[in-house]
Hints:
Elements: E1 4-6, E2 9-11, E3 18-23, E4 28-34, H1 38-55, H2 60-76, H3 78-89, H4 93-99, H5 101-114, E5 124-127, E6 130-138, E7 141-145, H6 151-164, E8 168-172, H7 179-192, E9 197-199, H8 204-212, E10 218-222, H9 225-236, E11 241-245, E12 251-254, H10 260-272, E13 284-288, H11 292-305, H12 327-337, E14 345-348, E15 363-366, H13 373-376, E16 383-389, H14 392-400, E17 407-411, H15 415-424, E18 429-432, E19 451-452, H16 457-462, E20 465-473
Parallel strand pairs: 7-8, 7-10, 8-9, 10-11, 12-13, 12-17, 13-16, 15-16, 17-18
Antiparallel strand pairs: 1-2, 3-4, 5-6, 6-20, 11-19, 14-15
Helix pairs in contact: 2-5, 2-7, 3-7, 5-6, 10-11
Amino acid sequence: MVQNFIDGELVDSASGATMPIVDPATGEKYGTAPISNEQDIDNAYAAASRAFADWRRTTPSQRQKALLAFADAVEANAEALVAAEGRNTGKPNHVTLAEEIPPMVDQIRFFAGAARILEGKAAGEYLADHTSWIRREPVGVIGQVAPWNYPMMMAIWKFCPAIAAGNTVVLKPSDTTPVTTVMLAEIAAQHFGPGVLNVVCGDRVTGAGVVAHPTPQMVSITGSVAAGRAVAVSAGGHLKRTHLELGGKAPVIVFDDADILTAAEGIAAAGYFNAGQDCTAATRVLAHAGIAEDLTAALAEQARGAVTTFGRAADDEGAWVPPVNNSNQLDRVLGFLSDVPAHATVPAGGNRQGDKGFYVEPTVIGGLRHDDRHVRDEIFGPVITVQSFADEDESIRLANGTEYGLASSVWTSHVSRAIRVSNALDFGCVWINTHIPLVAEMPHGGFKASGHGKDLSMYGLEDYTRIKHVMAYTG
């Protein structure tokens, strides 16, 4: 049974209500988590407020030391975290151990160092007989809501920069994936102290309560566009700052001078990783008309070779595509697959896999048009779509013709074309001849309906600070 983590302790919810925790690989319940109510949220924010009074006064070197110790502890507890994450998400253990734990630990260590190098305008006499300087201060208590696609990693992205900057946090994990977030909070409390990081589990009502509460000075969410809009409206009532990392529908532009097999391999890896449940997933391919048919065939071959974990052991290293996270998401993905337009083709996949768990066959849908909902809406499953374009100008117009603006990629052997197109794309990240790699030093965040604010990098840390001008009369 999962519990809340408030003021350094595991505690039961005041509500007494619980929700099931389901293994996506089997579709079976294996535990419960609390559905927290207003009293739980009040308690968590009270703990965060008490902790903030002291945590804000810690020096950057003290916060660095605590974060480095936390990173070491996460690394030491990697196997337990991976096993819990695997059961709660259906992800294969070997993939999580290799592809999530190392970047998580690296990101914690990055923010540990970043805490010591905050910048501002140089102190000086900008007015005669007066000296001015800039202070970067923590914002205060932060309310955060994390998603279910990367429960551990997204928790790290959320609370580590906030805590590194001197804030304290109340974090609400997804209702379907609370397990490892609570585990991380238990580990963190040994190094940050009680109340610096608090976790309240629950449903959408709980999440809305975390956002609407009057205590936090800032709220941050990773989630859907609809959820982000609701958060923005709620936060507006108290004029809270918002940090919104929302959905995506990443265009993958493949020109006729690209190596088709290399592109297909890279796109499939970035499209089917985590069953396509990634806001940056390479699932919306725009192929030059001269290679669209060949690229579709190459992607279909990749789809047929992408092995899911269905019917396999959690430590089977031959499988790498997990189930989708929950029954609602399964229904959503299957809804798209049952509604493929007549002018399109499905050369690979297109069906549910098996009758237990939430598995979907890795799928390719070719011959789509820009107004098809498969192209325009975020499917968030192992489904790669292909549409064609005639020339460079049309590729840019089609790529930018979406409400989303999170990530994109360009595949070409022409350097000048790569630069031109990357400049023209209206997305927070553009990869060239690759798709999906992230590093702690570079920002992640979108434009338009994909939200605002940055995760990772110094920009992510600075988002959790406020700027104060101090002026002293010296005459």
